[in-house]
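Practice problem: predict the structure.
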Amino acid sequence: MSKTKKTLLLLILVLLGFVLYTFISTGFFRNVENRFDGETLLEIPITGAEDITVCREDSFAIVSATARMQFPATEQEKGGLYYMELKSGNFVLTHLTADFGKAFAPHGISMFRRDSVYTIAVVNHMLNEHSIEIFTLVGKELTHTRTEKSTKLVSPNDVVLLDENRFYVTNDHGNAHGFGRLLEDYGNLAISNVLYFDGQQFSEAAEGISFANGINIDAERNLVFVASPRRFLIKVYKKAEDNSLTFIEDIPCGTGVDNIEFDADGNLWVGCHPNLLRFTAYAKGKKETAPSEILKIQYRGKGDYSVESIYTNHGSQASASSVAAPFGNMVFLGTVKDNKMLVLKLSE
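Answer:
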C-alpha cells in the first residue's frame, strides 16, 4: 500500500472515530422511555419556560420564558418574567415585565431575598449583545434597577446571586459564533467559563468547562454547582471568602444536565437533555420533539453522592426539559421551546 493510501486510510479512520465518539458522548444511542413514578397534575400554557426558581418561604415561583424560534436566534426574540403563586394550587401566572421598555429574551434567572425584598437577576439575550438585568420584587411589583454589560459576557447562560450586587454567571461558549463555536459543540472543547461580578466588574472565577450551563450555590456549605451538559457532568466547586472557586470534583450524570435547583433538604434537581444531538436538531427546528429527563442528586461531600433519574420522556409529553424546580411533593418542569410547563406530583 502506498504512503498516500495509508495516509488517506488513517484520515478516514480518524474521521470515523470522531463521528462515533460524537454519537456516543452525546447520548445518541440511549433509549429514552416514558417513565415517571408519580402523576401529572397540570399543564400550564406558556411558551419556552426555560428557567424556574421557587421561593418556599412565600410560596411563589418566578418563571423565565421566551418564545424561541430556533437556537441560536437569528432575529430578536421576545419573552418575559412571570410570577406564579403556589398557595392556592391554581398556579396563576402574572406577567411582570409586560411594560419592560427594551429588547428582552430572558434565559437563566436567580433570586435573592433580604427581608421582604427580592433581587432578581436574569440573563438577557439581545440580538447583538447580552446583558444581566437586575430587578427588585416587592409583592408582585417588579422594578428594573440596572443593567450589567461586559465584553466578557461572550455567551451567558445562567446566573446565581450572592446578594443584591454580586453574582456568578456562566458562559456556555468561549466563542460567540463561527467555526470556533461549532468546534466547541462537536469537538467537546472545554473552553467555557464562570464569571464573578463583584458589583463593579467581571472576572473569571472558573475555566476549562465544556458548555458551562446551569449554576447554583449551596450557601450553607459554600459549594457552587455548575452543569456541563456536553460532558454529562455536574462540576462541584468550593467558594472561598474572596469568592474564588476551587474545583472539588465532577459528578457523572449520564445525561445532558441543564439548570440546577435545590429542594428543602439541599438536594439538587436538574432538568436534562438525554440526547444532545436530538436536542440540537429540535432547537434548530429540524425535529418536532426532543427527550427530557429529571435528575435528583444527593451530594453529601467529596466522593459521596447519589444520582437518581426521577422522570424520563421521549418528547411526547415534554420536549427538551431545561429545569425541574421542586416545591414540597411537586416539581415544576420547564422546557426550552415547548408551549407548556408541567406540574408533576411525586409519589409518596
